[in-house]
Amino acid sequence: MTIGPAAQVNSPAQHPRLGLRLTVAGWQTVVLSVMALVVLTGAATSAALLTRTDAVTRELTDNIQPARVSAYRLQSALRDQETALRGYVIAADRQFLGPYEDGQQVEHEATSNISALLVGDRANLLADLNAIEQAGATWRGSYAQPLIDTVTPGAPTVMNIGTADRGKAEFDRIRTLFDAQNAHLAAAQNVAVDELDAMRSWRDRVLIVMVAVFVVGSILLAWLMRRAVTRPLAELAASCRRIASGDYTHSIAPQGSKDLRQIARDVDNMRGRILTELDISRLDRARLKMQTEALDAQAVELRRSNADLEQFAYVASHDLQEPLRKVASFCQLLEQRYGHALDERGIEYIEFAVDGAKRMQVLINDLLTFSRVGRVKTHEIVELDATLDTALGNLVVAIEESGAQLLRGAGPLPQVVGDATLLTMLWQNLIGNAVKFRREDHVPRIEIDCEPGIGDNQGHWMFSVADNGIGIAPEFAEKVFVIFQRLHGRDAYTGTGIGLALCKKIVELHGGTIGIDTSNNNGTRFWFTLPVAVASDEIPVGVPEGAHR
User: Fold this and answer.
1) Backbone phi, then psi, for 452, in 5-degree steps?
2) Residue 8: CB partners within 8 Å, gap ≥ 6?
3) Using one digit for the tens of pLDDT, what is the confidence trace for 70-91?
4) CA distance 440 to 245
5) Looking at the DSSP assignment, which residues form a beta bridge with residue 462?
6) pLDDT tens digits, residue range 5-23?
7) Which residue intervals of 485-541 are DSSP H helices?
8) What one-character-per-residue DSSP string does 307-356 give?
9) pLDDT value of residue 157
10) C-alpha count within 13 angstroms, C-beta hemisphere, residue 367
């Protein structure tokens, strides 16, 4: 429908606050840029949080927790030493010193592990470790080892109460250090756990902000599309439908964002151009109708003329052959009856006349054959193997006289749609040429090949007939397919120069192409294509796809 000026002013799509000076793409760029900035900021923050979380997690799992386990082993080793000392003093049995000595080994290993794990800013934890190590060494040097030296193995004694109290007091000081170490390790673990919780909390906040930005951005884009695109497009579509229904005089009012208004103006310009072209088309249609009627009349006249020409060619060829036969016959009779009275030159003249008459008959027959190709079109499934066998049967005398070797593929040739008689003529001319134009000192070798076409020839079969004969120079590759064109004199090779022109006409009649492989330097290689016999590119049974025959 047509929108008046008032509607355009009051339309929400025309409100200046909607930023209609920008295109839809411009607004989308602004909104998406803000969203992208927020996403990038959130991604950077999340990456930093994840990095710190990984670091704290590794510190907790790779340092603090293993350090606590080693601290428990250290404390247990010192307790084992104290217990083993009391047992040895009471029982005076050397086997009680085994745990005492093993405890020292475990104490050394645990101390090394704790020192390796507590790296970085862990001075307080290392101080606890050093205090326990010094207290243990002091206990062993001032109390445990002197007491062990006073015991006689095998002679149990009763420990002096004063000595026992002194040992207990010294070891209680070590236990106090144990409690301090455990408390400090637990505090370090709690600090790491709290930091992990804080990182998770920040991560959740960042994710919530990113989701909120996406939601707000999506809502803003939807609002923008509805105000600046959807409504103007609906109006534009309604106007287009009205014009399409036949109201070509309806004008389209520009609405919406800057680019949509430009589109509306372009569509309206197109409407005006179509209206102009429609008027011109109506005039052209009337003129075309008149021209079509004239062409139809010319086509009828042309068909009649072609029929008359064909009839004339047929009658003329028969009328020409009869005098030629008489000339040849009477010349031969003249030679038989008066040959004894003629000299060598006269006999030669008669032979020239007979040969010319016979060659004229061959030329007329070849011309008739050439003119008949395509006159009657036969479309049927043709077995190319059968046509090839027929052609070879027609050439059996020439093949046997020349001793030609014919190489065919092991599998069957494919089927094509066409005329069996014409395809037989195609094989016969190509193979006959290969036998005729042979080298004197070589046995003719003829190879017949078939493969699926590729590239521009896809959907066609690619056939080739190659020989080891005298070959054809590349500059004559196109000339040989022109009617009456010969590359050799009649005294060297017989023929009328129609055979290859006939081959080209037969191949093109079947929807293919034919040519000479100019890259072949060992004889001549003719190739031609024929369409496959099915609608799809299926390969007939016996000819695998992509395989060379």
Assistant:
1) -65, 140
2) 14, 253, 255
3) 888 888 888 888 888 788 777 7
4) 80
5) 451, 529
6) 333 433 433 444 444 566 7
7) 499-509
8) HHHHHHHHHHHHHHHHHHHHHHHHHHHHHHHHGGGS-HHHHHHHHHHHHH
9) 63
10) 16
Question: Edge-to-edge strand order for the sheet containing 525-531?
Answer: 405-407, 445-452, 460-467, 525-531, 514-516
The pLDDT-based confidence of 450 (bands split at 50, 70, 90) is confident
**Phi then psi dihedrals of residue 383, to 5 deg:** -80, 110
Q: How many CA atoms lie within 13 A of 486 on its CB side?
A: 13
Asked if residue 324 lies in contact with residue 361, where contact means CB atoms within 8 angstroms, the answer is yes
Picking from 254, 274, 256, 272, the residue whose alpha carbon sits closest to that of residue 264 is 254
Q: Pull the structure tokens for residue 99.
A: 């745990």
Structure tokens given for 70 = 């080693």
In 10 A of CB 238, how many CB atoms?
13
Buried b or exposed e, range 122-157, using 16+ CB within 10 angstroms: beebeebbebbbebbeebbeebbeebeeebeeeeee
Q: Give the per-residue pLDDT at 497.
A: 67
Joined together, the tokens standing for residue 155 give: 């002679």
Q: What is the pLDDT of residues 299-357, one digit of tens each?
A: 888 877 766 666 666 666 666 666 767 677 778 787 777 777 777 777 777 777 776 66
Lowest mean pLDDT across 133-142, 258-267, 507-516: 258-267
Which residue matches tokens 């862990």? Answer: 122
CB 14 within 8 A of CB 253: no
Which tokens is 544 given? 């695998």
CA 453 from centre of chain: 21
Interior/surface letters 354-363, b for 16+ CB within 10 angstroms, e for the rest:
beebeebbeb
Candidates 396, 549, 373, 403; CA nearest to 464 is 549
